[in-house]
Amino acid sequence: EIVLTQSPATLSVSPGERATLSCRASQSADTSLAWYQQKSGQPPRLLIHSATIRATGIPARFSGSGSGTEFTLTISSLQSEDFTVYYCQQYNKWPRTFGQGTKVEI
Amino acid sequence: EVQLVQSGAEVRKPGESLKISCQGSEYTFPYYWIGWVRQVPGKGLQWMGIIYPSDSDTRYSPSFEGQVTISVDKSINTAYLEWKSLKASDTATYYCGRHVGGSTNSPFEYWGQGTVVTVSS
């Protein structure tokens, strides 16, 4: 199975700053990579699919890049509601897998 | 608006059986893959498996195959996750999710609210 490794585990940033989250795949996920945001007590929310495409209603400050084994989620200017946990997921190979998550904290 | 509504929280003893549900609405239920994700308290997301309601084609993660059964009743737009014999390690929140399109090559776009399952003697 494809193992996704997210880094860092915790990212400490200030509001208004840029956040860069990484997701590395153990083998090629092509561009079949999604990013989710999850707030405490809530289901995940799809942010990005196909590595670079924002899901419906997602603000432009969220962007995704990468292909193959290296992927990045960038939040251009952190708002207070963005301080939470982010997961990547690949859907290129079976079984589908998630990364272990990155917590973005103030 | 697409909605996935899951059944309520459950408390069971080890060895007991359980079936939780996820009912979809406001979309053509048979033609979208629907799946299950586990989240152990304080931990990350684990992909368990998915099912295509139209023909009940099912795919499992090896980590969960044989441990759970995913099924569907398309007459009532509902997917199920079932255990025959629960373990304490099954204690988690279980989310259902619907794929973006009618293909498995897509992420989960819509999610249920989650069902908390507690297994304790």
Q: For the CA atoms, what is the radius of gyration of chain B?
A: 14 Å
Number of strands of chain A: 11
| Element pattern of chain B in H and E | EEEEEEEEEEE
Oligomeric grouping of the chains: heterodimer
**Portion of residues within helices of chain A:** under 10%
The profile of the biggest β sheet of chain A is:
7 strands, mixed
Q: Using only CA atoms, what is the Rg of chain A?
A: 13 Å
Describe the protein in words.
The complex is a heterodimer of chains A (106) and B (121). By secondary structure, chain A is mostly beta strands. Chain A has no helices and eleven strands. In chain A, a hairpin with a 6-residue loop joins strand 9 (85-90) and strand 10. Chain A is globular, with a radius of gyration of 13 Å. The mean pLDDT of chain A is 97. With 121 residues, chain B is mainly β. Chain B has strands spanning 3-6, 10-12, 18-25, 34-39, 45-52, 57-60, 69-73, 78-83, 92-99, 108-111, 115-119. In chain B, the strands form two sheets. In chain B, strands 2, 4, 5, 6, 9, 10 and 11 form a seven-stranded mixed β-sheet that branches. In chain B, strand 4 and strand 5 (45-52) form a beta hairpin. Chain B is globular and about 40 Å long. The mean pLDDT of chain B is 96.
List key phrases describing it:
heterodimer, A: 106 residues, mainly beta, seven-stranded mixed β-sheet, four-stranded antiparallel β-sheet, 48% strand, B: 121 residues, 11 strands, 50% strand, globular
Q: What topology does this entry show?
A:
The complex is a heterodimer of chains A (106) and B (121).
Chain A: E1 4-7, E2 10-12, E3 19-25, E4 33-38, E5 45-49, E6 53-54, E7 62-67, E8 70-75, E9 85-90, E10 97-98, E11 102-105
Parallel strand pairs in A: 2-11
Antiparallel strand pairs in A: 1-3, 3-8, 4-5, 4-9, 5-6, 7-8, 9-10, 9-11
Chain B: E1 3-6, E2 10-12, E3 18-25, E4 34-39, E5 45-52, E6 57-60, E7 69-73, E8 78-83, E9 92-99, E10 108-111, E11 115-119
Parallel strand pairs in B: 2-11
Antiparallel strand pairs in B: 1-3, 3-8, 4-5, 4-9, 5-6, 7-8, 9-10, 9-11
